[in-house]
């Protein structure tokens, strides 16, 4: 099976991708292009008839989505090594944002070097070699014990516990938890062999659609704030309306997964809930640091971690539920 869109791609790229990318990927890709085209047209119309800061922010988000989708699609087409390299870069930038917003001392520098230049490449290399056993414990066991010991060698005891916790939590979130997204490619599910890449696409679609739809429902119908001191934009109406809508879309995507429609709907609800909790928890961290965003890397979205906060909470939960229930 082929899609009309494949006619516009280089023949060599299509031939290489066809061997590892299921046909369902192309239909999802074409659908994403259609949605982004409609969003761009809507944003352009709103700019003409209802200009304002909200519309400007919306258009900035749409432009960023075009770029992010293009990068993700190219990595999917080029295969597992490129996908792992991309996520390694995402971990690097996300960890840099996390550390940049939190105070460090000279005694932390060696531990931070180990995080950036040893833990990140090692974690993604373990995924690339399908070494699940060490991938699952390397950071939460060995790095957890090693990093504070390395910092202690510096002799700097000022705020030692808080500093160690910050480094460990940053590494867990931005490297260990995030790496569970591409780790979905490790799963060998009977009857679903060679298609695990679609589980990654499924996770990302549900997570990001949930974020977008919660934002839209909150803007349109939001009246009751969930946690105004933590995130003034999160509302009960946004969570219920956007979350249920994203779960329904996830249920409709059951055909790209090894799940039944009901299982897909339940797993989508799990992803939505975990993503919401991730956004709320990391918003609390930002507020405690008197920061609005983690950075300015993505126009309209803030920093890299602002876009990944939902993924870092949902990816490990989704990975382990699917692994123990299906693989």
Automatic annotation (TrEMBL):
Repeat is among the record's keywords? no
Q: Would you tell me the protein name for this molecule?
A: Phosphatidate cytidylyltransferase
Q: Which domain of life is it from?
A: Bacteria
Q: Where are the transmembrane segments?
A: 25-48, 60-78, 109-127, 133-155, 167-187, 199-217, 238-256, 262-282
Sorted alphabetically, the Gene Ontology cellular component annotations on this record are: plasma membrane
Q: Name one GO biological process term.
A: peptidoglycan-based cell wall biogenesis
> What keywords is this UniProt entry annotated with?
Membrane, Nucleotidyltransferase, Transferase, Transmembrane, Transmembrane helix
Q: Name one GO molecular function term.
A: nucleotidyltransferase activity
Organism lineage:
Bacteria, Pseudomonadati, Pseudomonadota, Betaproteobacteria, Burkholderiales
| Xref: Pfam families | CTP_transf_1 (PF01148)
The answer to whether UniProt assigns keyword tRNA-binding to this entry is no
């Amino acid at each position: 099976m082929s899609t009309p869109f494949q006619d516009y791609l280089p023949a060599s790229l299509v031939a290489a991708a066809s061997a590892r990318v299921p046909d369902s990927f192309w239909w999802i890709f074409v659908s994403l292009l259609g949605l982004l085209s409609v969003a761009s047209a809507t944003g352009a119309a709103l700019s003409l008839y209802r200009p304002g800061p909200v519309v400007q922010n919306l258009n900035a988000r749409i432009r960023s989505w075009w770029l992010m989708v293009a990068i993700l699609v190219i990595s999917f087409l080029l295969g597992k090594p490129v996908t792992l390299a991309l996520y390694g870069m995402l971990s690097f930038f996300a960890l840099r944002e996390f550390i940049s917003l939190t105070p460090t001392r000279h005694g932390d520098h060696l531990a931070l070097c180990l995080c950036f230049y040893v833990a990140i490449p090692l974690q993604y290399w373990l995924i690339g070699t399908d070494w699940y056993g060490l991938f699952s414990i390397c950071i939460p066991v060995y790095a957890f014990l090693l990093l504070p010991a390395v910092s202690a060698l510096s002799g700097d005891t000022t705020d030692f516990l808080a500093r160690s916790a910050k480094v460990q939590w940053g590494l867990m979130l931005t490297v260990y938890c995030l790496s569970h997204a591409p780790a979905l490619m490790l799963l060998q599910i009977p009857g679903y062999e060679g298609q695990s890449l679609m589980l990654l696409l499924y996770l990302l679609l549900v997570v990001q659609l949930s974020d977008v739809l919660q934002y839209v429902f909150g803007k349109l119908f939001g009246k009751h704030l969930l946690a105004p001191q933590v995130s003034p934009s999160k509302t009960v109406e946004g969570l219920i309306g956007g979350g249920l809508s994203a779960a329904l879309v996830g249920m409709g995507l059951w055909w790209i997964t090894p799940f039944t429609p009901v299982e897909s709907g339940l797993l989508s609800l799990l992803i939505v809930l975990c993503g919401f909790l991730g956004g709320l928890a990391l918003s609390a961290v930002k507020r405690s640091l008197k920061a609005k965003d983690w950075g300015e890397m993505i126009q309209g979205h803030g920093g890299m971690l602002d876009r990944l906060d939902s993924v870092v909470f949902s990816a490990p939960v989704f990975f382990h539920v699917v692994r123990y229930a299906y693989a």
